[in-house]
Amino acid sequence: MELAHGLLLNEEVCSQLSEHQKAEFVFEWLRFLKKLLIAADRADLKEKQKKLVEQLTALLNSSPGPPTRRLIAKNLGVLYSIGDTSLCVPNCG
């Protein structure tokens, strides 16, 4: 699960996993991301924010279960509170 410990979801590894393993991998990444966002360098975060928002939105649109949706929502909230808030407006409309 060390591959799940990055600011961005490792889509290459994720695509090679079975559905069950993929769900576990994504959940583990979301749990780690929650901690990582708070400690991340703001410049690095702003650089990767657009891709990260795309990944989180795609995960949300894939109809995950309630625990995963909750983590996605918390991560988006933290991301917009410490990152670039101007990216929030197009996604809210």
From TrEMBL:
Concerning InterPro entries, the annotation shows:
Laa1/Sip1/HEATR5
Q: Which GO terms describe its cellular component?
A: cytosol; endocytic vesicle; Golgi apparatus; membrane
- Gene Ontology biological process terms from the UniProt entry: endocytosis; intracellular protein localization; retrograde transport, endosome to Golgi
User: Can you tell which superkingdom this protein's organism belongs to?
Assistant: Eukaryota
Q: What is the name of this protein?
A: HEAT repeat-containing protein 5A-like isoform X1
Q: Which gene encodes it?
A: heatr5a
